[in-house]
Each structure stands twice: as structure tokens, then as C-alpha cells.
């Protein structure tokens, strides 16, 4: 029998030996250089915060959080699962920060993923956000930084998919179903890429969501529009959703965003409007974006984000608009 | 009443806003550049490991460790309190790593310090170690890297204090007290700088340790030797401890180390033999070193380490020698 402690990591955790860490460090440096070239300044916050900050009231935030405790201390603590919630806390707690506040943060985050190949319970996140601006120019700058980062990492084949949550929120008005079904409908649509329309349609009409086949058909018409060029898509979706004021608002924002992206010089072939993109987290309120590697679509999105105008108000009486994106490495 | 979550950090934790983080990041980059110039390669290990790895069997290691848990998972986990224990685990678990293995690691560590001014429960540690060499040249290289780091940080007034644990372990033979009192005696000596001799002497002779006044007097003679130049100190301590084979072994190692430090070009005024230096952690086995800022001695040591030839064998049947130092920032 061994009289020593087995030198094993827990499953879902990973060492980076020098042969992995040297290129990884080079990648980190390149991402940081892009963020700094765009004029973002560094922020650092603890890995560990009060449980009530990290998990908040939002059910989305309670997912698989690591709790932490120490002898003789009763305060409930948790490990951060992203860098956006801590940013919102910092902005709320430091109202004098000059805005727009363009900050980047690099740090480990922890999640209670079920251990499986390629999913880690700890990884490094690079996060760039602009806080204090409602302008779509801020959203466009985030998309430009996503594009520049992929170029700096010498990844030739990628596509940034863009949508607007307001258009998705307008689906209730457009297809005529009850607003309380909206998040379930969005979660179903979000699976389109991985599962195909037939499965999504079945989910939409099953007992749990319970759309009619006419409503599902209306949604199919909607998601099919993403096959077109940005301008065509915008014109078509405007025609389709003319009766939804919420969607029209999102479409108008998206038109402005398209102009801004073009003005910033992000090449046309590197981005696309994709009306099926919803993003998982509940805090997004406007434009949402995600980057996929077009050679290996199955790994999902690698650099994603969106506008979250309500998050700071979880921690403060004032509401502060914000937009940003992060890449997990 | 507020209907939002108070945006507060737990006590002992700190945000670094951009005005703090920009110079901090610059400092991080400089330290990393020094480590890389010395040919050290990066390693990364998780912040969170199995509890048995982090806390081990050693009572020194159980101090104030943060435990972590997640719903539906029974495995006991803990946050790392240093980067040396994870290094020992990596070396034991990857026996094929080419040695000597010169690695650096940068990462956050967590400790359950009682909250008080200037003591944080989370900080960033920079750690440089050489694994697989028993040579004092490896210890000298660690001292050279400590010197180069202080220069790179443009800190003019510092002093690296050097000792050898074997000399301290020889105190039982030299002063004639029981070996089971040795760690308590070392802990008392370690307080000399902060408390002065009178308090240390009282502690040595109190009921708990129980040395005789003759034994305490012998220890005073010993610690007083640190006032001299390195060569004088070595000659004097050799004359004093001639009857302790353990100490003679340490003195001989220290003579070799002094030659190696000089050969590496670390200026004479930047280091000193100080026989009172013990270092807190139990795992050190040979040379120990710590850097103090001579303008602000009260903050204690800022960059410290030593040789720990037994640590890897906690995790493996083989024993692997190692030496290193770390700076917490």
C-alpha cells in the first residue's frame, strides 16, 4: 500500500505543463494586447465573493456555483462563474468611475460542469466590456474587438453571428403566444444548430411549451430568414414582424449596428445576422453576438456576449447600460 | 429599504480598479520577464484541488485553508494556499518531466487570514522553483532571481537574508535540549526581529518550551553572530557549533552557497547570512532565504523561499530535491 497521497487532480480540472503553457501564455499575451490596443484598461476582482453577489436572485446565476467556506467564518462565499457579475458589482459600488468605462479583465472562473471530455470546471476568461453607453457604437466596438482577437490568434475561419434580444422578445407579439412561454421558446430556438428544425419544432409544440403548429410554423418562417445577407434579412424580418413594436425596435437597433460594424471596417464575410442566436444567460437586453469557428462548428461559440442594460441595477438603485463579450480559454 | 443586493466585497478581499491595476500589471510583467530571462518555463495548475492534496497530513498545511464544494458532488476540495504544494504534486504525478525542471508559476492563492489592515485573504503569488537538483548552484540561482526581480521592480533598498535549516536543527545538539522542542524554539527565534531578544528569551524559558537560562544564553550567542560579515559569521558559527554534526553540515552547505552567490554576481551589500531566519513553513530542509525592504522592515519579508527536499515524497515513492522562492503581490 502506498504511504503517500495520490498526486491526482479532481476530474474537470487540468494542469498546463510547460509544453502547453508556453503557447497558452503566448495566446494570453496576444489577446491582452488586442484589448489594450482598443483602449480597454485592466480591472481585477477577487475569485471569491459573497455568495449573495455571485448567485444573486437570478435562477440563471445559481447554476452550478462552487461554494467556499473557512473554519470560524460563517459568511457564505462563492467562486465567480464569470467576470461580468463582478464588473456589475464594481460599477454599482464605485459610482464615481468615469464613463464610458472600457475595462478588460482576465481571470479564472469556476463552474460545476458535469465532468465530460473537453468541459472544464475551471478555465481562464478574457472579458472586454463598455459600461455607461447606450450607443450601438459600443456594441460595434465589442464586435470589432472580437474580430481583431480572432485575427491576432491567427484563426482564419470564423464567423460572428449577431442578433438582438428585442427581436426575439417580439416573437410573442408576432406569433401570438403568451409572454411567459418566451424563455422556453428561446431556449428551444437556441438548439436549432445542434438539433435541426424538426426536433426544435417538436419541442415547441410539446406539452411543456405547447405552441400550436401555426405558431411553430410562424417561428420557422422567422428563423429561415437568417439564410440571407444582413440587409436582406433586416428587410425581410421587418416585413414579417411589422405588427410587433418590440421586434421593430430591435430591428431598428440592428440596422444601426450593421452600419457601425461596416464603418469600423469589420469585413462583411466575418459577420452575419442570425435570428436564431439567443445566448444562454438571462441578463442580455439588446444586441447579442457569438463567434463560431466555421471549420469546427460542433465546439459551439468561442467568443460571445451582448448588451446587458439591467445587470448593474441588481446592485444599485441606478441602472447603468453595458455591453461586452468574453472568450474562455 | 434597498431592493438591490449591496455591492460589497467580503472583508480581506480587494478590487484593483484600473488606476491600481495598470501599474500592478506592469509590475507583473516585469517579474515574469525576469523569470523568463533566467530560463524558467511557465506552469499552470488549478486554483482548486482535492482537499487531501492541499491540506495533506502536515499540520502546517491545514492552517486556514478555504474549502470548496458544489451541489451533488461529495468530493472534498480546497483552494490552494501556495504554488509549491501543487508543484510537488505535478512533479510526483509526471515522473517523466525532464530535470532539473525550472518552472515559474503566477496565480492567485487564498488564505483564511484574520481580516486586518494590509493582510489579504487572496493575493497573487509569483513562484520560481528548480526541481531535481541537490546542488547549491540551484539555491544560488534562486537568490540571483530574487535579486534581479528587486532590481527590475526598481526597489533600491533591500537585503536578502540567508540561513540554513540544518544549522538551526543543530541547535538541539549545540545547546543540549530535546529535539521535540526544536520547532517551538525556531518559532521563538523567528520572532527576534519583531519582538527583540528579551521577549524571545522569556518565551524560550517559559513553561511551554522550558529551556534553562544556560540554554537560552547559548542561543543568544548563536543569534548574535548574525551581526558579522558572511565569512566572519561562518567562521564564528563553526567555532561555536563544532560539536553539532548537523550544524556543521549546514555550515558547509552555506560556505558553498556563499561562493556560488558571489560567482553569480549578486552584490555583497544585497545579501547577508542571518542565523535567526527560520521561515515559517515546516517543509524546508536546507538553505532558506528571505528578502526584506530595509526602509520598511516592519512589513516583513517580501520574497522568500528555500530548499524543500522532502515535499515531493508526500505524493510519490520517489524523493525529488527542490528549491525555490515566491513573492506575493
From TrEMBL, chains A, B:
It comes from the Bacteria. The keyword Nucleotide-binding applies. It holds the Pfam family tRNA-synt_His. Its EC number is 6.1.1.21. The keyword ATP-binding applies. It catalyses: tRNA(His) + L-histidine + ATP = L-histidyl-tRNA(His) + AMP + diphosphate + H(+). Belongs to the class-II aminoacyl-tRNA synthetase family. InterPro entries: aa-tRNA-synth_II, aa-tRNA-synth_II/BPL/LPL, His-tRNA-ligase, HisRS-like_core, HisRS/HisZ. NCBIfam families: hisS. GO terms for molecular function: ATP binding; histidine-tRNA ligase activity. Residues 1-133 form the Aminoacyl-transfer RNA synthetases class-II family profile domain. Keywords: ATP-binding, Ligase, Nucleotide-binding, Protein biosynthesis. This is Histidine--tRNA ligase. L-histidine binds at residues 82-84, 111, 125, 129, 279, 283-284. GO terms for biological process: histidyl-tRNA aminoacylation. GO terms for cellular component: cytoplasm.
